[in-house]
Amino acid sequence: MSDALKLDDLRRRMDDIITAFKHELGSLRTGRASVNLLEPVMIEAYGSVVPISQVSNISVLEPRMLSISVWDRSIVVAVERAIRNSGLGLNPITNGTNLRVPLPELNEEHRRKLVKVAHQYAERARVAVRYVRRDGMDDLKKAEKDSNISQDEGHNLSDKVQKLTDDYVAEVNEILTSKEAEIMEV
Fold it and tell me: What digits encode the pLDDT tens for the residues 82-109?
């Protein structure tokens, strides 16, 4: 019973890694508008620095156009400045408390750079999955050493942990392949 719980814990931790990986990839600009694109943008407002999502609503108007509705008129200029200075290559157009952010066409060189970044995110996710695997294997070795499980049980459970790891690494690779195709799509 406790072995199944340990595998469930490993599975939960690996699911969290996949979720974080998808979240990181969502922030990469692919030429299509995505509300996740502006997530890293921080706004200086009310005496502190806050994420853009805490001062506005972000929506997708068209495949290559974002709309930002700022809640407080006094920080519209700060939001506009933060988007321009974010390093994302975006130039918002202000209309009252609303900003429209057209996404420029991506050139081939920039697309290749984005693919490299996506590969770095994927490698970090794979390494994190392997760390979870290592933790699981360490727990199995300790349980075996303490005579809580037999060698056969330890071997069977280590095979299950390895299979779980292989499945999650394969999932990371599939997600990466999909994102790479999306980025390189012309």
Answer: 988 876 778 898 998 899 988 877 788 8
Q: d(Cα 117, Cα 115) in Å, to the nearest integer?
A: 5
Nearest to 114 by CA among 35, 24, 43, 45: 24
DSSP state letters, 15-72? HHHHHHHHHHHHTS--SS--GGGGTT-EEEETTEEEEGGGTEEEEEEETTEEEEEES-
* Contact indicator for 94, 56 with CB cutoff of 8 Å: no
Interatomic CA distance for residues 15 and 31, integer angstroms? 28
Nearest to 34 by CA among 181, 184, 182: 182
Q: Are strands 98-102 and 65-70 parallel, antiparallel or unpaired?
A: antiparallel
Residues 6+ apart with CB under 8 A from 182: 30, 32
| CA pair distance 35, 42, nearest whole angstrom | 14
pTM over 0.70: no
CA atoms within 13 A of residue 112's CA, in its CB half-sphere: 3
DSSP at 74: G
Backbone angles phi, psi at 178, to 5 degrees: -65, -45
